[in-house]
Amino acid sequence: xxxxxxxxxxxxxxxxxxxxxxxxxxxxxxxxxxxxxxxxxxxxxxxxxxxxxxxxxxxxxxxxxxxxxxxxxxxxxxxxxxxxxxxxxxxxxxxxxxxxxxxxxxxxxxxxxxxxxxxxxxxxxxxxxxxxxxxxxxxxxxxxxxxxxxxxxxxxxxxxxxxxxxxxxxxxxxxxxxxxxxxxxxxxxxxxxxxxxxxxxxxxxxxxxxxxxxxxxxxxxxxxxxxxxxxxxxxxxxxxxxxxxxxxxxxxxxxxxxxxxxxxxxxxxxxxxxxxx
Length: 277
What we know:
By secondary structure, the chain is an all-alpha fold.
Protein backbone atom coordinates (compact mmCIF):
# COMPACT_ATOMS: atom_id res chain seq x y z
CA UNK A 1 0.00 0.00 0.00
CA UNK A 2 1.01 3.59 -0.57
CA UNK A 3 2.41 5.39 2.45
CA UNK A 4 0.12 7.66 4.42
CA UNK A 5 0.71 10.80 6.45
CA UNK A 6 -1.27 9.11 9.22
CA UNK A 7 1.09 6.82 11.18
CA UNK A 8 -1.83 4.49 11.87
CA UNK A 9 -1.87 3.53 8.19
CA UNK A 10 1.87 3.07 7.73
CA UNK A 11 3.23 -0.33 6.64
CA UNK A 12 -0.06 -2.18 6.96
CA UNK A 13 -0.22 -5.72 5.55
CA UNK A 14 -2.18 -6.30 2.38
CA UNK A 15 -5.04 -8.74 2.08
CA UNK A 16 -7.40 -10.34 -0.39
CA UNK A 17 -5.80 -11.12 -3.71
CA UNK A 18 -2.61 -9.17 -3.04
CA UNK A 19 0.69 -10.40 -1.66
CA UNK A 20 1.58 -9.70 1.94
CA UNK A 21 5.21 -8.68 1.66
CA UNK A 22 7.51 -8.84 4.67
CA UNK A 23 4.70 -8.78 7.30
CA UNK A 24 2.85 -11.97 6.30
CA UNK A 25 -0.93 -12.33 6.28
CA UNK A 26 -2.94 -10.33 8.80
CA UNK A 27 -4.75 -12.00 11.65
CA UNK A 28 -7.94 -13.64 10.39
CA UNK A 29 -6.61 -14.64 6.97
CA UNK A 30 -5.98 -18.28 6.08
CA UNK A 31 -3.42 -19.16 3.44
CA UNK A 32 -4.99 -21.77 1.14
CA UNK A 33 -2.85 -24.53 -0.27
CA UNK A 34 -2.08 -23.99 -3.93
CA UNK A 35 -3.27 -20.38 -3.91
CA UNK A 36 -6.40 -18.84 -5.38
CA UNK A 37 -7.40 -19.90 -8.91
CA UNK A 38 -6.65 -17.11 -11.35
CA UNK A 39 -4.21 -15.32 -9.05
CA UNK A 40 -1.36 -17.78 -8.75
CA UNK A 41 0.16 -19.38 -5.64
CA UNK A 42 0.79 -17.72 -2.34
CA UNK A 43 -2.37 -15.59 -2.28
CA UNK A 44 -4.84 -15.27 0.56
CA UNK A 45 -8.60 -15.13 0.98
CA UNK A 46 -10.71 -14.24 3.95
CA UNK A 47 -11.00 -17.06 6.43
CA UNK A 48 -14.33 -18.62 7.28
CA UNK A 49 -14.40 -16.69 10.54
CA UNK A 50 -14.34 -13.25 8.91
CA UNK A 51 -15.73 -11.76 5.72
CA UNK A 52 -14.04 -9.07 3.60
CA UNK A 53 -14.34 -5.47 4.76
CA UNK A 54 -16.93 -3.21 3.13
CA UNK A 55 -17.64 0.52 3.09
CA UNK A 56 -20.54 -0.09 5.48
CA UNK A 57 -18.13 -1.65 7.99
CA UNK A 58 -15.95 1.47 7.88
CA UNK A 59 -18.95 3.80 8.24
CA UNK A 60 -20.40 1.85 11.19
CA UNK A 61 -17.10 1.46 13.08
CA UNK A 62 -16.14 5.09 12.50
CA UNK A 63 -19.62 6.19 13.60
CA UNK A 64 -19.36 4.17 16.81
CA UNK A 65 -15.92 5.61 17.55
CA UNK A 66 -17.02 9.17 16.85
CA UNK A 67 -20.20 8.69 18.88
CA UNK A 68 -18.18 7.43 21.84
CA UNK A 69 -15.87 10.45 21.68
CA UNK A 70 -18.83 12.83 21.43
CA UNK A 71 -20.65 11.21 24.35
CA UNK A 72 -17.67 11.47 26.71
CA UNK A 73 -16.77 14.88 25.33
CA UNK A 74 -20.19 16.45 25.84
CA UNK A 75 -20.52 15.08 29.38
CA UNK A 76 -17.04 16.30 30.33
CA UNK A 77 -17.56 19.70 28.69
CA UNK A 78 -20.80 20.26 30.63
CA UNK A 79 -19.07 19.12 33.83
CA UNK A 80 -16.26 21.63 33.24
CA UNK A 81 -18.64 24.49 32.49
CA UNK A 82 -20.70 23.84 35.64
CA UNK A 83 -17.58 23.83 37.82
CA UNK A 84 -16.20 26.99 36.25
CA UNK A 85 -19.55 28.75 36.68
CA UNK A 86 -19.86 27.72 40.33
CA UNK A 87 -16.30 27.91 41.61
CA UNK A 88 -14.32 29.64 38.89
CA UNK A 89 -11.90 26.72 38.63
CA UNK A 90 -11.72 23.05 37.70
CA UNK A 91 -11.78 20.39 40.39
CA UNK A 92 -8.89 18.00 40.84
CA UNK A 93 -11.07 15.17 39.54
CA UNK A 94 -11.80 17.00 36.30
CA UNK A 95 -8.20 18.04 35.79
CA UNK A 96 -7.20 14.43 36.41
CA UNK A 97 -9.78 13.25 33.87
CA UNK A 98 -8.44 15.70 31.28
CA UNK A 99 -4.79 14.77 31.82
CA UNK A 100 -5.66 11.10 32.12
CA UNK A 101 -7.59 11.23 28.84
CA UNK A 102 -4.62 12.87 27.12
CA UNK A 103 -2.10 10.32 28.46
CA UNK A 104 -4.30 7.27 27.94
CA UNK A 105 -5.20 8.40 24.43
CA UNK A 106 -1.52 8.90 23.57
CA UNK A 107 -0.52 5.50 24.98
CA UNK A 108 -3.35 3.67 23.22
CA UNK A 109 -2.56 5.38 19.92
CA UNK A 110 1.09 4.35 20.14
CA UNK A 111 0.13 0.77 21.00
CA UNK A 112 -2.30 0.58 18.08
CA UNK A 113 0.20 2.11 15.66
CA UNK A 114 3.08 -0.20 16.59
CA UNK A 115 0.95 -3.35 16.92
CA UNK A 116 -0.67 -2.74 13.52
CA UNK A 117 -3.61 -4.92 14.51
CA UNK A 118 -7.30 -4.01 14.65
CA UNK A 119 -9.04 -3.87 18.01
CA UNK A 120 -12.57 -2.66 18.60
CA UNK A 121 -12.18 -2.27 22.39
CA UNK A 122 -8.92 -0.33 22.03
CA UNK A 123 -10.36 1.92 19.34
CA UNK A 124 -13.40 2.72 21.49
CA UNK A 125 -11.19 3.21 24.56
CA UNK A 126 -9.03 5.64 22.55
CA UNK A 127 -12.14 7.50 21.45
CA UNK A 128 -13.43 7.71 25.02
CA UNK A 129 -10.06 8.97 26.29
CA UNK A 130 -9.88 11.64 23.61
CA UNK A 131 -13.48 12.57 24.41
CA UNK A 132 -12.53 13.17 28.06
CA UNK A 133 -9.55 15.31 27.11
CA UNK A 134 -11.24 17.32 24.36
CA UNK A 135 -14.44 17.69 26.38
CA UNK A 136 -12.66 19.20 29.38
CA UNK A 137 -10.55 21.43 27.16
CA UNK A 138 -13.61 22.53 25.19
CA UNK A 139 -15.43 23.32 28.44
CA UNK A 140 -12.61 25.65 29.47
CA UNK A 141 -12.60 27.37 26.07
CA UNK A 142 -16.40 27.60 26.14
CA UNK A 143 -16.30 29.39 29.49
CA UNK A 144 -14.07 32.06 27.95
CA UNK A 145 -15.46 32.16 24.39
CA UNK A 146 -19.16 31.32 24.36
CA UNK A 147 -20.18 29.05 21.47
CA UNK A 148 -16.63 28.24 20.39
CA UNK A 149 -16.91 24.47 20.98
CA UNK A 150 -19.96 24.14 18.72
CA UNK A 151 -18.27 26.27 16.07
CA UNK A 152 -15.18 24.05 16.19
CA UNK A 153 -17.33 20.93 15.97
CA UNK A 154 -19.27 22.28 12.98
CA UNK A 155 -16.03 23.36 11.33
CA UNK A 156 -14.46 19.93 11.83
CA UNK A 157 -17.54 18.20 10.42
CA UNK A 158 -17.57 20.55 7.45
CA UNK A 159 -13.93 19.91 6.60
CA UNK A 160 -14.37 16.14 6.94
CA UNK A 161 -17.46 16.04 4.72
CA UNK A 162 -15.90 18.44 2.24
CA UNK A 163 -12.74 16.35 1.84
CA UNK A 164 -14.83 13.17 1.52
CA UNK A 165 -16.73 14.79 -1.36
CA UNK A 166 -13.47 15.96 -2.91
CA UNK A 167 -12.08 12.42 -2.70
CA UNK A 168 -15.20 10.66 -3.97
CA UNK A 169 -15.66 13.02 -6.92
CA UNK A 170 -12.01 12.72 -7.87
CA UNK A 171 -11.54 16.49 -7.76
CA UNK A 172 -8.13 15.84 -6.21
CA UNK A 173 -6.34 12.63 -7.14
CA UNK A 174 -4.24 10.87 -4.52
CA UNK A 175 -0.98 10.46 -6.42
CA UNK A 176 2.45 9.41 -5.12
CA UNK A 177 3.62 13.01 -5.52
CA UNK A 178 0.70 14.39 -3.48
CA UNK A 179 1.28 11.72 -0.86
CA UNK A 180 4.92 12.73 -0.48
CA UNK A 181 3.98 16.40 -0.18
CA UNK A 182 1.41 15.71 2.53
CA UNK A 183 3.72 13.40 4.49
CA UNK A 184 6.46 16.01 4.31
CA UNK A 185 4.07 18.69 5.51
CA UNK A 186 2.92 16.55 8.46
CA UNK A 187 6.51 15.83 9.48
CA UNK A 188 7.44 19.50 9.14
CA UNK A 189 4.48 20.60 11.26
CA UNK A 190 5.34 18.00 13.92
CA UNK A 191 8.95 19.21 14.07
CA UNK A 192 7.83 22.83 14.44
CA UNK A 193 5.41 21.87 17.22
CA UNK A 194 8.21 20.04 19.04
CA UNK A 195 10.57 23.01 18.82
CA UNK A 196 7.80 25.35 19.91
CA UNK A 197 7.11 23.14 22.94
CA UNK A 198 10.80 23.11 23.87
CA UNK A 199 10.97 26.88 23.41
CA UNK A 200 7.90 27.40 25.59
CA UNK A 201 9.12 25.17 28.42
CA UNK A 202 12.75 26.29 28.36
CA UNK A 203 12.46 30.00 27.50
CA UNK A 204 8.80 30.94 27.87
CA UNK A 205 8.75 31.87 24.18
CA UNK A 206 5.62 30.52 22.45
CA UNK A 207 5.47 31.99 18.92
CA UNK A 208 3.33 29.27 17.30
CA UNK A 209 0.68 29.07 20.01
CA UNK A 210 0.77 32.57 21.50
CA UNK A 211 -2.22 33.92 19.61
CA UNK A 212 -0.37 36.37 17.36
CA UNK A 213 -0.32 36.59 13.57
CA UNK A 214 2.22 33.76 13.31
CA UNK A 215 0.05 31.51 15.50
CA UNK A 216 -2.97 32.20 13.28
CA UNK A 217 -1.03 31.38 10.12
CA UNK A 218 0.40 28.22 11.67
CA UNK A 219 -3.05 26.99 12.73
CA UNK A 220 -4.46 27.64 9.25
CA UNK A 221 -1.57 25.68 7.73
CA UNK A 222 -2.13 22.80 10.17
CA UNK A 223 -5.85 22.76 9.36
CA UNK A 224 -4.99 22.55 5.68
CA UNK A 225 -2.54 19.71 6.27
CA UNK A 226 -5.05 17.79 8.40
CA UNK A 227 -7.72 18.29 5.73
CA UNK A 228 -5.51 16.88 2.98
CA UNK A 229 -4.48 14.04 5.28
CA UNK A 230 -8.09 12.86 5.07
CA UNK A 231 -7.53 12.20 1.36
CA UNK A 232 -4.74 9.77 2.20
CA UNK A 233 -6.85 8.18 4.95
CA UNK A 234 -9.78 7.67 2.55
CA UNK A 235 -7.42 6.25 -0.07
CA UNK A 236 -5.91 3.76 2.38
CA UNK A 237 -9.40 2.67 3.45
CA UNK A 238 -10.36 2.16 -0.20
CA UNK A 239 -7.23 0.10 -0.80
CA UNK A 240 -7.91 -2.09 2.21
CA UNK A 241 -11.46 -2.72 0.98
CA UNK A 242 -10.29 -3.57 -2.53
CA UNK A 243 -7.61 -5.83 -1.09
CA UNK A 244 -10.26 -7.87 0.75
CA UNK A 245 -8.97 -7.24 4.25
CA UNK A 246 -11.10 -8.90 6.98
CA UNK A 247 -14.02 -6.80 8.20
CA UNK A 248 -12.43 -6.35 11.64
CA UNK A 249 -9.80 -4.10 10.02
CA UNK A 250 -12.56 -1.48 9.72
CA UNK A 251 -11.78 -0.76 13.38
CA UNK A 252 -8.25 0.19 12.36
CA UNK A 253 -9.57 2.51 9.67
CA UNK A 254 -11.87 4.10 12.26
CA UNK A 255 -8.90 4.59 14.59
CA UNK A 256 -6.85 6.25 11.84
CA UNK A 257 -9.68 8.61 10.94
CA UNK A 258 -10.21 9.47 14.61
CA UNK A 259 -6.58 10.55 15.04
CA UNK A 260 -6.92 12.99 12.14
CA UNK A 261 -10.28 14.25 13.42
CA UNK A 262 -8.83 14.92 16.88
CA UNK A 263 -5.93 16.91 15.42
CA UNK A 264 -8.24 18.88 13.13
CA UNK A 265 -10.67 19.74 15.95
CA UNK A 266 -7.83 20.97 18.18
CA UNK A 267 -6.43 23.20 15.45
CA UNK A 268 -9.83 24.69 14.60
CA UNK A 269 -10.52 25.29 18.30
CA UNK A 270 -7.18 27.08 18.64
CA UNK A 271 -7.74 29.17 15.52
CA UNK A 272 -11.19 30.29 16.66
CA UNK A 273 -9.79 31.30 20.05
CA UNK A 274 -7.08 33.39 18.36
CA UNK A 275 -9.68 35.15 16.21
CA UNK A 276 -11.82 35.92 19.29
CA UNK A 277 -9.01 37.78 21.06
